[in-house]
Amino acid sequence: MIRSHVLICGGTGCTSSGSVALKEALASELKAKGLDEEVKIVMTGCFGLCALGPIMIVYPDGTFYSRVTINDIPEIVDEHLLKGRIVDRLVYNDTTVEVEEGAHISLNDTTFYKKQKRVALRNCGVINPEVVDEYIAMDGYQALGKVLTEMSPAQVIQLMKDSGLRGRGGGGFPTGMKWDFAAKSVSDKKYVVCNADEGDPGAFMDRSVLEGDPHAVIEAMAIAGYAIGADEGYIYVRAEYPIAIKRLTIAIAQAREYGLLGKDIFSTSFNFDIQLRFGAGAFVCGEETALLTSIEGNRGEPRPRPPFPAVKGLFGQPTIINNVETFANIPQIILKGAEWFASMGTEKSKGTKVFALGGKITHTGLVEIPMGTTLREIVEEIGGGVPNGKKFKAAQTGGPSGGCIPASHIDTPIDYDNLIAIGSMMGSGGLIVMDEDNCMVDIAKFFLEFTVDESCGKCTPCRIGTRRMLELLTKITNGNGTLEDIDHLEELAKHIKATALCGLGQTAPNPVLSTLRYFRDEYIAHVVEKRCPAGVCKNLVSYEIVADKCKGCTACRRACPVGAISGEVKQSHIIDKNKCIKCGVCVTKCKFDAIIRK
Amino acid sequence: MNVNVKINGVSYSVPRNATILEACKAASIHIPTLCYLKGLSEIGACRMCLVEVKGARSMVASCVAPVNEGMEIFTNTPAIRRARKMNLELILSDHDKNCLNCARNQSCELQRYCREYGVEDQNYFTGKVNEFRKDNSTLAIVRDNNKCILCRRCVAACQVQQKVGVIGVNDRGFDTHIGCAFEKNLGDSPCILCGQCVVVCPTGALVEKGQTDDVLNAVADKTKHALVCTAPSVRATLGECFGMAPGTDVEGKMVAALRRLGFEGVFNMNLTADLTIMEEATELIERIQNGGKLPLITSCSPGWIKYCEHYYPEFIENLSSCKSPQQMFGALAKTYYAHKMGWDPEDIVFVSVIPCTAKKFEVKREGQSAAGVYDVDYAITTRELGKMIKRSGIAFDELPDEEFDNPFSIGSGAGAIFGATGGVMEAALRTAAEVILQKPLEVLDFTEVRGIAGIKKATYKIGDFELNVAVASGTANAAELLDLVKSGKETFHFIEIMACPGGCVNGGGQPTQPSYVLNNINLREVRAKVLYNADKDLPLRKSHENAQVKAIYDEFLGKPGSHKAHEILHTFYVKRGK
C-alpha cells in the first residue's frame, strides 16, 4: 500500500540543479530501507520556485523541501518517511511560520503562492506528465468529451468568445474571434498549430506547461480542431526544449493509444491528430507567419498579412495558431464555463497570466496571477522583493518586443491594454526586474543586440535599421554619443516601428523607445556628462582608491588580474587607469570601502 | 465586382481583388517598388511601397495589401515621404555607392528613387558596411553583392520562374546576402546562365560579363577582320537602350550603327535561323521516318541546353544535334566565307549580338570550332551593343535605316520569329510540311504555337501524318513539359524549348526595364509583336525559300543533313552534374 507520495520537480530548472539524480538516489534509498512499496516517487512538472530547486514535496502532509541534495536523502528517508519527523532545516523558509508545534503553513499560504491563481499551470507540479491517467484523474479530456458529444462547433466558439480569452503569446488577439475567422473560411483542409517556439530571453512559461501538463495542450488543440473543422495539428516546439519534446512525444503516443487522438474520437466522427515540428532556434519563427513558413520546410521568414493565417495559413489553408499558454487555459474554460473565466481579470483582459520572474528579484521563477494584479504585488509580495536591500528601478516585460516600466508605474494593474499604454507590452510573459545597479541604456542595448542577431533580414527597416540603432546605442554607451545621436536614434526607432514587415521588427525599437521615454536623463548623462549613472558602461566608469580610507592591506593589488594596482604594505594604493580593465574585482576585495567607482 | 476606396481624398471604384498598388496605378498614382514583381515576387520586403491606411496600426505595404470596401488610402503624406526616404537612406548605408563606375548607372532603380525622394545625404546613416567578394566565376554573369539591396527578385526568377534555384538567401539579419548553397561560386553551381536574374535586378548587383572593350579593340585591330551578326530579337529591343518605347523595330538603325562601329561585315542571323530550320527539319523528318529518338527537341537556346545537361540528362539524346543559329553563323564565317574571301579563319573575329547571357558560355563549348578555332569569338548582349554605340558617339536615333551585308543579308519571316516562343516551331513546321507534302502550304500561320503561354501543345495533320508538337518557354515550364513526356502521359514528335519565358525577346541579355515597366507592360508580348509583324510583311516567309541559304548549300554544304553540313553545323552535348 502506498502511504506517501514524494513529488520531485522534473522541470528544466530543477533538472539542471540535479533533480534526476535526486530521484535515483531516493529510489535506491527507499529500496534499501524496504520502503519502495510504501512510498511512491512522482516526477512532476515545474512548481514555479525555480530559484529554490531541486524541489521536493512530501504528501500526505505537503512538506515543501527546497534545495535538496543527494546527501540529504538518507535523512529525509530516515526521519520523514520512516519516522514521520519533518526535516526542518530543508523546509522552505516561508512555510516555517509555525502555526502550532511541528506544523507548517501550507505552501498555498506562502507569499509566493498566496496571490497566485493557477489555471494554465494547475497541473504543473501536481501530476506526472508522462502518465496520461494522472491527467485524466484531474478531469483531463473531459472537456474534449464534452464538446464532441454535447456542443456544436459554433457553441464552442461562442463559449471562447464569451470567456474573453486573449492570445497569451504576445499580441493578445481574442482567441474566440480568431477561431471564428478560421471556422468561417471555407476549405476541405484546415490546420491547428500550437506555437511552442518560446524565444524571449528568460521566458519559460510555455516550456513549463509543456513539461508539466502536455495533455492540456493536446486536448485543447483537438477542441480547436473540432471548433474550426480541422483534422490535423502541428506543435512547433523549440529543439532546445528536450524535456518538453520528450513529454509531448510520450503524451501524443498515449493519447493515440487511448483513442483521444486519431480517428473517431469519443466514438464520434471527429478525427484529429498532431505532429511535432522542431524549431532550430530562430527567434523570428515565433512570429506566426514565419512559423508556418518554417513548418512548410522553408527558411523561417515572415510573410505579409493579410492574408491572415485564419484565411490562408499553413500550406495555404485556413489555420489557427495559438500559443501553449492560451491552449492550456481552454479545457478548463470548457468545463468551468465562460463566466468562471471571465470573473477573473480586468474588463478587457480576462483570466490569468503566467510570468517568468527574473533579474533582481528574490524568487526567480514562474508565477501565475490574475490579470489586474499590480506590478508591486508581483515584485514585492510574490517575488519577494529586490534582494540585497537595493531599490526597484524598473521592470521589463515583453522581452525584446516590450519595454521598461519605471517605478512610477509600479501600481499599474497588469493587463494587455495598460501595458501598451505605458509603452511596454504583455509579450509572452517574461518579467525582468531591475534595480539601481542597472543602466537603462545598457538594458536597451542588450535587447536590441538580441533583435539584431535574430532579425531574419527580409525587410529593409529591420535588417539595416536595427543594426544602425545598435551602432548608435553602442556609440552612446562608449561615451562617444552626441545629443543628435539621441534624436537620430529616436527617429529611426519610430521609423522601424511604423514600417517593418512583421511583429518582430515593428516591436524591436520598444526597449529603446520606452527607456527614452522614462529614462531619458540617463541617455543624456551618457552623452553630455559622459557618465553612466549606474556605473555599468565600462567606457564611462573609472575606479579610484580614496587615499584616506586605504589601509594598504594589498588585497586589491593581489586580486587585480592585470596588475593595475600598485602600493606598499600599509601605504595607500593607486590604480593605473591606463591598465585598469574595469572588472571591479578590487571593489569586492576591499574591506574598507576605499575603492570608489565613478 | 468593384469596391469603393478613397485615394488621397478622391473616390475610386476599383476591382475587389486589386491590391492597393494596383488601385493607385488605376488612379494614375505611381508608387515606388523595389522588391515587387507581379506574379513572381510578392513578398512585401523592401517597404518602399508603403502607404497610410486610415485605421491601420502601422504603414501598409501596398504591393501585397488588398483593397477593402471603404478603405481610405494616403500615398503622399509627409510621413510616407519620410518613411520611403529613410528606407532609401538605410539601404544606402549598406551599399557600394560608387555609382559612376557602375554598370547600371542611370538605369538603376535605387538611384532613380534616391533622386525622386530627394535623398541629399547619402551618408545620413553610417556604420558597418558589408563587404562581399565579387563572384566572377562564370563566363556570363557577374554577381556583386556590394550593390545588392536584397529585393530578392533574382531569387524569385531563379527559383520560381526558372525552377533552377541555384541562388537563395544566405545568413540572416544584417549579414543576409544572396548566394549559392554553402557559399559556392555561381560557376561551381548548376546555374544555366540564362540571365533572368540579371534582367530583373534593379541595381548593378547582377550584370553580364561585359566584353564591350574587347570587341571595340578587336574592331580597331587592322590585322583582323571583324564581322558581326545580330540575332532575330535584337532589332525588337535595342531601341529600349536609347529610351524608345518597347516594341520599336530598329533593324535599319541597328545595321547602320554596327557599320559605323567599324565592322567589316554586318550580317543577319535570321539567315542562319533559316539554315537551322533546314537542318532541323531534315533531322526531324529523318528521325520520324527512320525510327530515331523522339521527341526531337530544339537546341537553339544555350540556357535550355545547359538546363537539360544538368537537370534532364535523360533527354540529351532527344536534343537536335544542330548548332544554334549563332554558332552556325560563326562556323560558316570561318569556313565558307573565309574561303570565299581568301582569309585565314584565325584572322576573323566573329562577334554575335544576342539577347542572351548563356551564349557567352555557348561560344566556349566543345564541338563549336568548325575551322579549328572558336566559331564565335564574342557573344555580346543587346545591352552591351547599346553601350558600345553610346561610347562610340553614334547618335542612334538620327541614323538612317541601312541593309545587312551580302552574302548573309536575307532572312525569311520564319527566321525572324525565332526570337519569340513558338517561333522555331512554326518556322520548322512551314518547312517540314512543305518538304513532306511537296507542295506549298495555303496558310503559313500556325497560331496554336504562338502567344506567351508557358506551355503550348498542338497536333497538325500533314498529309496522313499527325504531328504532335509542344512548345515551352522558361525552364520551369520546360520541366513541367518534360515530366509529362517522361511519365508517358503525353507523346510528342517535336518540342521547342526556350530557357527564357517568352523566348529570346525576354532573354537574359535584353535591355533592363524598371519594375514599374515590368509590372505594367507585357514586354514579352510587345516585343514579340515586332517579329510577327516583320514576318507578316515579308514576301519571303519560309526558310527553304531563302536564296542565300540555297546558295550556301549549292556552293558549300551540298544538301541539308549532308556529311559536310554535319561537320560544320552540328554538335554534341554532355551530361553535367546537378
Provide a descriptive summary of the structure in words.
The complex is a heterodimer of chains A (598) and B (578). By secondary structure, chain A is an alpha/beta fold. Helices cover 39% and strands 14% of the residues of chain A. In chain A, the strands form 5 sheets. Chain A has a 5-stranded mixed sheet. A 4-stranded mixed sheet of chain A has the order 2-1-3-4, with helices on one face. Chain A has a 4-stranded parallel sheet with strand order 7-6-5-8, sandwiched between helices. In chain A, strand 9 and strand 10 (365-370) form a beta hairpin. Chain B is an alpha/beta fold and 578 residues long. A 5-stranded mixed sheet of chain B has the order 2-1-5-3-4, sandwiched between helices. A 4-stranded parallel sheet of chain B has the order 11-10-13-14, with helices on both faces. A 4-stranded mixed sheet of chain B has the order 12-17-16-15. In chain B, helix 9 (269-289) crosses helix 11 and helix 9 crosses helix 15 (423-437). The longest helix of chain B is centred in the middle third of the chain and has 21 residues, at 269-289. Chain B starts with a strand and ends in a 9-residue tail after the last helix. The relative contact order of chain B is 0.12. Classes of the chains: A alpha/beta (598), B alpha/beta (578). Chain A binds chain B through residues 282, 299, 301, 303-304, 306, 452-461, 463-468, 471, 491-492, 495, 497-501, 506, and chain B through 43-48, 50, 58-59, 61, 64-66, 79, 82-83, 86-87, 90-91, 93-94, 125-128, 149-150, 168-169, 171-176.
List the helices and strands and how they pair.
The complex is a heterodimer of chains A (598) and B (578).
Chain A (H helix, E strand, L loop, with lengths): L3 E6 L2 H5 L2 H14 L6 E6 L11 E4 L3 E3 L7 H10 L28 H4 L17 H6 L4 H9 L2 H11 L11 H10 L6 E6 L8 H8 L1 H15 L3 E7 L3 H16 L15 E7 L8 H8 L23 E5 H13 L1 H5 L9 E8 L5 E6 L4 H8 L9 E6 L5 E4 L9 H6 L8 E6 L4 H15 L5 H18 L5 H17 L3 H5 L2 H9 L1 H10 L13 E3 L9 H5 L5 E2 L7 E2 L9 H5 L5 E3 L1
Parallel strand pairs in A: 1-2, 5-6, 5-8, 6-7, 9-13
Antiparallel strand pairs in A: 1-3, 3-4, 9-10, 11-12, 11-13, 14-17, 15-16
Helix pairs in contact in A: 6-10, 6-13, 7-8, 7-10, 9-10, 9-11, 10-13, 17-18, 17-21, 18-19, 19-21
Chain B lengths: L1 E6 L2 E6 L4 H7 L23 E4 L6 E2 L10 E3 L3 H15 L16 H8 L24 E3 L9 H9 L6 E3 L6 E3 L16 H5 L5 E3 L3 H9 L4 E6 L3 H4 L13 H11 L3 E4 H21 L6 E2 L4 H10 L13 H17 L6 E7 L4 H4 L15 E4 H10 L21 H4 L6 H15 L17 E8 L2 E9 L1 H13 L6 E5 L16 H4 L4 H15 L9 H11 L5 H7 L9
Parallel strand pairs in B: 1-5, 10-11, 10-13, 12-17, 13-14, 16-17
Antiparallel strand pairs in B: 1-2, 3-4, 3-5, 6-9, 7-8, 15-16
